[in-house]
């Protein structure tokens, strides 16, 4: 991950976490709507899936040769959003999720 990605990751993590923190019953549709409301287009949102009471997702933030992505779990006050790394080119593919 380059310096630009590293710096940007903190800002993206914070704004996404804040948007999802108060989301009641975070279904995939509600999480997508919240991310869209922040300006993230559908083509950048991947792997939306319900896991118990949480909805997991990836957010592709690659641009200008960067490799930044976010790995998130929307679960109210248990929401967690972490930076991850994707290939610099080609289709989006993040690393395996930790269970």
Q: How many DSSP E strands?
A: 4
Low-confidence stretches: none
Instruction: Tell me the overall shape.
Output: globular
Structural classification: alpha+beta
Helix content: 25-40%
Quickly describe the structure:
The chain is an alpha+beta fold.
What are the SSEs and their pairings?
Blueprint: H1 3-21, H2 28-37, E1 45-51, E2 54-60, E3 68-74, E4 80-85
Features of this protein?
alpha+beta, 99 residues, single chain, 4 strands, 2 helices, 4-stranded antiparallel β-sheet
Commentary on this structure:
The protein has helices spanning about 5-20, 30-35; strands spanning about 45-50, 55-60, 70-75, 80-85. By secondary structure, the protein is of the alpha+beta class. It starts with a helix and ends in a 14-residue tail after the last strand.
